[in-house]
Amino acid sequence: MILLNGKPQDLIPASDRGLHYGDGVFETLAINNGKPQFWTAHMERLLDGCSRLVIPLPDVACLKAETTQVADGCERAVIKIIITRGSGGRGYRPPASPEPQRLVMHYPWPDYVVPQEGITLRQCLTPLSCNPRLAGIKHLNRLEQVMARAEWGDDLVHEGLMLDLDGNVIEGTMSNLFAVRNGVLLTPDLTRCGVAGVMRHQVLLLAHKLGITCEIVQLRAAELEGMDELFVTNSVIGIWPVSCLGEARYGEAPITQRLISALNLMMEQK
Amino acid sequence: MILLNGKPQDLIPASDRGLHYGDGVFETLAINNGKPQFWTAHMERLLDGCSRLVIPLPDVACLKAETTQVADGCERAVIKIIITRGSGGRGYRPPASPEPQRLVMHYPWPDYVVPQEGITLRQCLTPLSCNPRLAGIKHLNRLEQVMARAEWGDDLVHEGLMLDLDGNVIEGTMSNLFAVRNGVLLTPDLTRCGVAGVMRHQVLLLAHKLGITCEIVQLRAAELEGMDELFVTNSVIGIWPVSCLGEARYGEAPITQRLISALNLMMEQK
């Protein structure tokens, strides 16, 4: 089921700037126990994205009602919300009074098959481009992720790692990356590129509560080999430990496991 | 009038990857004297873009017929062609057997009002990000151009100049840039970012025919002040001389004028 501006509709105008330019933002959120998870955090990022792109802000209460309607009583599902600037304007020039379009879509819960000991991560060749003006937000320009994800077809590889053009580790194609070194939790700085994931933010909050030191860092790909633990996060998968990246193997992951337990507890209490 | 896969239709599926990820390419071409201009060059770039994104190639004869149908006998018009990877796949992962969608759209000829002596160009704050994997092609990830074009509302400013993050001049928001210094035609290298415009290519060919030396260069914004001539190009506007960029003024532009005359002659002969 898809709602466009609140009405069941699975088509959008061919003139929409979301299609022409990727002129919009989106959120992908989990429905668990019938309820949207981390709703407030998703809405904060969505509104931040709209503000930064100067798209009029959607009504959050209305999005909540539509999310509930589209979730349709499912215990588990994925909801995708897309806000575009709508049609109009002249070429790239945005219209003076945009009429944003609001899509709320239901997807079945994905059937990822992931080994208990952790996932296999591969390093992608497609680089992420840097642009501080767009960094952090979840805008609709996602061709780099598509190209990176198209690099492998082997289902035994679960996620791809993306670097910027300078060789800094940024994130996975659909996830954020964390590493643990000497008991300290590290995650890449996203001020120049990358998506500031809602689950990344939750993990940072959880780590803080658990008294785990966190650092936002520049990380080189070669440094990952020397890490004690690696994991990736997103709103749907939660936390996936990494067991394998290239030649590197990661075994016992006490801090990752503590975070997974804390996250599970937090989700149960919601 | 809009054709979707050959049928009149002004809506597209909300699941289209063009909307979700900007997963596709486009062309904007001029109809002059009732005929599409530089058709072959546009098709070459479109096919190159599809190849690089691993989108099955559209049938060019079919696109030609649809362009003629959508142009609808107009003497002058703008036709926009969009090819997306269609729907399907799993998140960023492209479908194994994509069913590309083909949109052909008619726009009226734009009523740009441009002074005879040349346009006013402004330097944009929004940077262009670099990604050699996407450079040159006209893909649907155009948020940077939208952000740059949103920087000014004054109709007396005709185009915005965009730099990469390192301060290299790349192109205009909707055009390519050329400069003339000591009789030599210069245009920025586009191997790391930017769109390799069809008109840029034609101008390089024309200059070659006219015996004007051309160089593809790295250009710093500060160097533009010392240029003898500046102009911008695209498929619809042709060549626009620049008379003003920041504090810099450009007067007599003999090489630009030679190129404009040669281009006009070429268009008449088509």
Tag the structure with descriptive keywords.
homodimer, about 270 residues, alpha+beta, nine-stranded mixed sheet, six-stranded antiparallel sheet, about 25% helix
How do the helices and strands line up, and which of them pair or pack?
Two copies of one chain form a homodimer.
Chain A: E1 2-4, E2 7-8, E3 11-13, H1 17-21, E4 24-32, E5 35-36, H2 39-53, H3 60-71, E6 77-84, E7 101-107, E8 119-123, H4 143-149, E9 159-163, E10 169-172, E11 176-181, E12 184-188, H5 198-209, E13 214-217, E14 229-234, E15 238-245, E16 248-249, H6 254-269
Parallel strand pairs in A: 8-9, 8-15, 12-13
Antiparallel strand pairs in A: 1-2, 1-7, 4-5, 4-6, 6-7, 9-10, 11-12, 11-14, 14-15, 15-16
Please explain how this structure is put together.
The structure is a homodimer of 270-residue chains. The first copy, chain A, is of the alpha+beta class. The first copy, chain A, is built from 6 helices and 16 strands. In chain A, the strands form 2 sheets. In chain A, strands 8, 9, 10, 11, 12, 13, 14, 15 and 16 form a 9-stranded mixed β-sheet that branches. Chain A is globular, with a radius of gyration of 19 Å. Chain A starts with a strand and ends with a helix. Chains A and B meet through strand 3, helix 1 and helix 4 of A and strand 3, helix 1 and helix 4 of B. Strand 3 (11-13) of chain A pairs antiparallel with strand 3 (11-13) of chain B.
Could you provide a short overview of the structure?
2 copies of one chain form a homodimer. Chain A has 270 residues and is an alpha+beta fold.
